[in-house]
Amino acid sequence: MHPTFCSEQIQTLWDQGLVNEDRLDLPADAAASREELVAVVDAVRRAAPELTLTVDPLEHRGFEYHTGVGFSLFAPSARGELGRGGRYLSAAGDPSTGFSLYLDAVLQALPAAARMRRIYLPAGSDRAKGAALRADGWITVAGLAPSRDNAAEAKRLGCDHWLDGDRPLPV
User: Residue 133 in contact with residue 119, Cβ under 8 Å?
Assistant: First the structure.
């Protein structure tokens, strides 16, 4: 088991100067990595101070091509990672940063979409009334031919209401 640090611990370490180069005598490669980490954490804290940031200095997932700081993205509403990425050298040797989002995890973390009101407009309905309903947030489905049972037609088309003259009626 290796240590991880939560945002409050990182703040304390930064405030106490425990990660600054003048406190620890490290080999040149390790000192350069520390300086890069300090710069990244400082930049993230400036850009998004409300963000929860966890630093795991020993995390390594076998991405040997990474050349610097790697990261994983999490959300309180998600059970696992939403994505991960890091610094690397491109095929042309250019320093780059990339990441992958795991769309199944992102979609699972999103709140359920509110169901929109959907109304059937029988054939011949007033076009202005349809425009007003759309402006009010309704999804409108226009009938192309007269129907003997507008409520049944609305239900068949996945609507929860139908327009009876000027008033929406539930299906």
Answer: yes
Is this structure's pTM higher than 0.90? Answer: no
Per residue in 66-111, pLDDT (tens digit) is 787 788 899 888 888 999 988 888 889 999 989 999 999 999 999 8
d(CA 60, CA 90): 20
Please name which of 25, 14, 95 lies closest in space to residue 55, comparing C-alpha atoms.
14
Q: Which amino acid is at 95?
A: P
The span from the CA of 129 to the CA of 150, in Å, is 17
Alpha-carbon distances of 25 from 18, 19, 119, rounded to whole Å: 11, 11, 70
- 89's enclosing H/E stretch is strand 83-89
